[in-house]
Amino acid sequence: MIKNKIIYNNFSDYQFKVAKAKGSFLWDDQGKKLIDFTSGWNVTNLGWNHPEITQEMIKQIKTNTYIPQWTADPIQERYAEELSKALPKRLNCFTRETGGASANIMALKTARAYTGKRKVISFKDAFHGSLYSLLELGYSPEYTVAKAVSLNFQDNIHLNYPRVKSIDKNEKQILVSFEQSLEKVLKENNDIATIVCEAGIITGWGSTFIAPKGFLTVIRRLTKKYGVVLILDEVGTGFSRCGKLFGLDIENVIPDIITFAKAMVNGASAIGAMVTTKEIAKETINKSNPQATFGWMPDACAAALKTLEIHKRDRVWEKAKKDGKYLLKVLQSELKNNHLIEDINGIGMEIGVHLKKKENKKTKMKQMIEKARKLGLHLAYADDYNFQIMPPLTIEINVLDKGIEIFLKTIKFFS
Ligand SMILES: Cc1ncc(COP(=O)(O)O)c(C=O)c1O
């Protein structure tokens, strides 16, 4: 869709103009107030336009706004220091990225440069960003880098995601089968550089699928055994979304590389990061070419520092865990006999409401979203059969309840 000269992707068909946003609410350009169940897709985890974060940015803007990549602003080093304190000790080297896709591309380049291998294992239904194979298109002096580390589709091995539905009683068996199929792939291919995944959940577009408990532990064990780099995409799970500060804290797994973006600055600016160990960073700097003109601008770092401070100070993940459990329980019990629903499952405040394909005509999802908006609730369009419910983690309980009430009313209206 093209509207007022901007090109939108398909899931923006229902788009409306946001005139104002604050805390758990958005206001459209007609002045209608909406409860937000999206957090801008796991971005505004602390609520929209958090005043403390805005304040820090304003302070920084008065000091310095730009720093070129061959040097550093002191605030960038402060942020690297603070973020490393919140992570496992060995993950203490950062590249300065502008978003999730650039962080993931950097992670892939780094893993390939480190191992000297090409293949990448990833999961069907996962989403890691919309950039792909960029180096081959790029500036010719980088072609040597491209040959060493860039991504070709034939280098990808796509595994089925070991999805667990809320009604599944055989979670352990799903994990065992997954372990066997992953080990088979690792045994049969000696050119695997890395496996890319999220922490036991797919938070990206069109899914919110949940893996069996132990998923990341199994991957870590096998990646160690076969000398494969583990990239953990924390773009969606990071910053308290899943009931822990980071997704890696759910099973206490230490990956080789992590990527962050989205909630890192609570939507105050564009920022991302690839995090790895000193050993990997030292080995790969000259091959993976870490550079981004606008990576970690000082105002974004001021926002990132404050964002991290608030998550730790207020232990935001604890509220996310508690409210997420409540939200999941209410939705599951209220909709358990609804003929439209296939499954409802989630981790923390990332809940997937999956509709049965045969009961739902494609256009219904957008009608449901429009209906909810008329009733005062902003929902994200995940795809034609999935709602991804991702309220701000700071949402007040009465606002959460009101949002749940509108969501249930909407589903029941179409049932
Ligand atoms: C899990 C995950 N990884 C990576 C990305 C890409 O991030 P960005 O849109 O900042 O490039 C997304 C975006 O939705 C995502 O959900």
Describe the structure.
By secondary structure, the chain is of the alpha/beta class. It folds into two domains: 259 residues, Aspartate Aminotransferase, domain 2; 47 residues, no CATH class. It has 14 helices and 17 strands. Strands 6-12-11-10-9-7-8 form a seven-stranded mixed sheet, with helices on both faces. Helix 3 runs parallel beside helix 11, helix 7 packs parallel to helix 8 and helix 12 runs parallel beside helix 14. The longest helix is centred in the C-terminal third of the chain and has 19 residues. It starts with a strand and ends with a helix. The protein binds pyridoxal-5'-phosphate (PLP). Pyridoxal-5'-phosphate binds next to helix 4. Keywords: Pyridoxal phosphate. This is Aspartate aminotransferase family protein.
Strand content: 15-25%
* Main beta-sheet annotation: 7 strands, mixed
State the end-to-end distance.
29 Å
The CATH homologous superfamily of the largest domain is named Type I PLP-dependent aspartate aminotransferase-like (Major domain)
Helical fraction: 25-40%
DSSP helix count? 14
Overall CATH class of the largest domain:
Alpha Beta
Question: What is the number of E strands?
Answer: 17
Global shape: globular
Give start-end ranges of low-pLDDT stretches.
134-138
Give the tally of structural domains. 2
If you consult CATH, what is the topology of the largest domain? Aspartate Aminotransferase, domain 2
Strands ordered across the widest β-sheet: 6-12-11-10-9-7-8
Ligands present: pyridoxal-5'-phosphate
Please state the second-level CATH architecture of the largest domain: 3-Layer(aba) Sandwich
The chain-level mean pLDDT equals: 92
Compute the gyration radius: what is it?
21 Å
Structural class assignment: alpha/beta
